[in-house]
Design a protein that fits this description.
With 216 residues, this protein is mainly alpha-helical. It has 9 helices and no strands.
Length: 216
């Protein structure tokens, strides 16, 4: 028998340099803003492209791509990065919409620019908590994501469904409930489950109240 040749060693995949990773993440935020503007002209995507929940999810996913270390310093960096990412989404959307002939303003006092600050801070906190070894933090992260989706979905059913239809908002609420249920099921302790449920319920009411009070 011919002896088998020794297997060739597999070289480990080199890590992506930090500068490249940061460039890709922040560039992706701009691109997502660009795609949002085009998405508003596509029938099935128009309503979804006019909602804030998907942008929040994009920010969380991009923050996870940054792989920021946990801890207090990492939490602060993630929160600041979350705000920057959401504002870059606005910049991409604003620039593209104007270039396409749809006038849009990027005022520091506009509702969405202002809301990007607390939303970005929350997205940063979620991106750190979801990777925590503490089940309570992961449960709270699931509850926070669910709250954004459920709260916006409820607000939209109350205020804009007459012009947009209800399908998108029902789906958004359904996704939020699925995230919440998943967080509760995967929680490793009763305390984590209660925290996930409480964060989801109270957070949903808070997001809904914020929309209604600010009238957007």
């Amino acid at each position: 028998m011919t002896p088998l040749a020794p297997a060739r060693p597999v070289s480990p995949v080199p890590p992506v340099p930090v500068v490249a990773r940061v460039s890709m993440v922040f560039g992706s935020a701009l691109l997502a803003g660009v795609l949002t503007s085009f998405g508003q002209a596509v029938g099935p995507l128009s309503t979804l492209s006019n909602s804030a929940g998907p942008w929040f999810l994009v920010a969380v996913v991009l923050l996870l791509g940054l792989r920021i270390r946990t801890g207090r310093a990492g939490l602060a960096l993630a929160m600041v990065s979350g705000v920057v990412l959401l504002e870059l989404l606005h910049v991409g959307y604003w620039a593209t919409s104007n270039l396409r002939g749809f006038p849009d303003t990027l005022s520091p006092t506009s509702f969405w620019v202002l809301m990007a600050v607390p939303a970005g801070v929350l997205a940063g906190a979620v991106s750190i908590a979801v990777r925590s070894a503490d089940g309570r933090q992961r449960g709270a992260a699931a509850g926070a994501v669910a709250a954004v989706l459920i709260g916006e979905g409820m607000r939209s059913l109350l205020q804009v469904a007459a012009t947009t239809g209800v399908v998108t908002w029902i789906v958004e609420i359904g996704v939020g409930v699925a995230v919440l249920v998943t967080g509760i099921v995967l929680a490793r302790s009763p305390g984590a489950r209660v925290l996930a449920l409480g964060t989801g319920v109270v957070g949903s009411v808070a997001v809904l109240a914020t929309y209604l009070l600010l009238g957007s």
